[in-house]
Amino acid sequence: MTEVIDGNAVAAEIREDLSDAISTLEQAGTVPGLATVLMSDDPASETYVSMKQRDCEEVGINGIHVELDNDAPADELYETIADLNADDEVHGILVQSPLVEQVNEREAFRAVAPEKDVDCFHPENVGRMVAGPSHARFKPCTPHGILKLLDHYDVETEGAEAVVVGRSNIVGKPMANLLAQNDATGNATVTVCHSRTEDLEAHTKNADIVVAAVGVPEFIDGTMLKEGATVIDVGINRVDAETEKGYKLVGDVEFASAREVADTITPVPGGVGPMTRAMLLWNTVKAASEQTGVDVDLP
Ligand SMILES: Nc1nc(=O)c2c([nH]1)NC[C@@H]1CN(c3ccc(C(=O)N[C@@H](CCC(=O)O)C(=O)O)cc3)C=[N+]21
């Protein structure tokens, strides 16, 4: 029987475990603080940011939300980030992507103080992560959440053939790097596929673990997978549908055909998405611990 991964359940467990660490910090006089900054006209972004703020409330993190006008000058964003960098009550800062066109996204990510960069988008933190486990500060939320799911469902990465489809800075690149690292959640043989890959199916057919992060609805189907594979679907695509909201969410994997072939598979919604949010809380607690020098146990 194919196992469908329950990302909501694992994320709830992590939030539950984090509350111990948050209590420890509170007893030492610190409430972890996470600032989310929204400057976007992307309709999904509002939803995601409000979910992140609700998560904060649930676990006892001080959620601070800043919303900027879509037509404000880029400097307003940089001033906001500078203020949050200087604010002792803020331990983590997330600048929601995508940003409006007048802002250079790379520059905005680089403006966040590295110790508060809970997305792990700042080049200093990316470099430290690539340098290896003993150098790393944060892991980016989505790849980090995926590693937690693989561990939770006893999916062996060591020696596995892993294919990461997509090479974005947010998911594909760090995911491939982490799966190849020489540590307990890595040691896979990793192939990175992307839009210039000649024969995608030749790679995915051979994979024990497929991570799909391309942002194209139902891009990968069951015929492209190896029997018994683990399939991790990072895609969260809104496609028009006659629902209350006028759309439904589909992944980058065609779930119905893939589940026939896969041994373990994440659904959309309820798979990777909730884990991304849980690991954002995790990184915020780690950031607060490091900024205050109060040791905590992280799940
Ligand atoms: N600086 C930055 N950091 C991010 O981590 C970041 C970002 N920008 N921009 C956009 C992407 C996307 N992302 C999601 C996280 C959780 C869900 C999530 O919880 N999804 C639910 C359902 C969501 C729904 O109902 O719409 C699920 O999959 O079950 C979705 C998307 C974080 N991102």
TrEMBL record:
GO terms for biological process: L-histidine biosynthetic process; methionine biosynthetic process; purine nucleotide biosynthetic process; tetrahydrofolate interconversion. It catalyses: (6R)-5,10-methenyltetrahydrofolate + H2O = (6R)-10-formyltetrahydrofolate + H(+); (6R)-5,10-methylene-5,6,7,8-tetrahydrofolate + NADP(+) = (6R)-5,10-methenyltetrahydrofolate + NADPH. Residues 140-291 form the Tetrahydrofolate dehydrogenase/cyclohydrolase NAD(P)-binding domain. Pfam families: THF_DHG_CYH (PF00763), THF_DHG_CYH_C (PF02882). Residues 5-119 form the Tetrahydrofolate dehydrogenase/cyclohydrolase catalytic domain. Pathway: One-carbon metabolism; tetrahydrofolate interconversion. Keywords: Amino-acid biosynthesis, Histidine biosynthesis, Hydrolase, Methionine biosynthesis, Multifunctional enzyme, NADP, One-carbon metabolism, Oxidoreductase, Purine biosynthesis. Its EC number is 1.5.1.5, 3.5.4.9. NADP(+) binds at residues 166-168, 236. SUPFAM superfamilies: Aminoacid dehydrogenase-like, N-terminal domain (SSF53223), NAD(P)-binding Rossmann-fold domains (SSF51735). GO terms for cellular component: cytosol. GO terms for molecular function: methenyltetrahydrofolate cyclohydrolase activity; methylenetetrahydrofolate dehydrogenase (NADP+) activity. CDD domains: NAD_bind_m-THF_DH_Cyclohyd. Homodimer. Belongs to the tetrahydrofolate dehydrogenase/cyclohydrolase family. Catalyzes the oxidation of 5,10-methylenetetrahydrofolate to 5,10-methenyltetrahydrofolate and then the hydrolysis of 5,10-methenyltetrahydrofolate to 10-formyltetrahydrofolate. This is Bifunctional protein FolD.
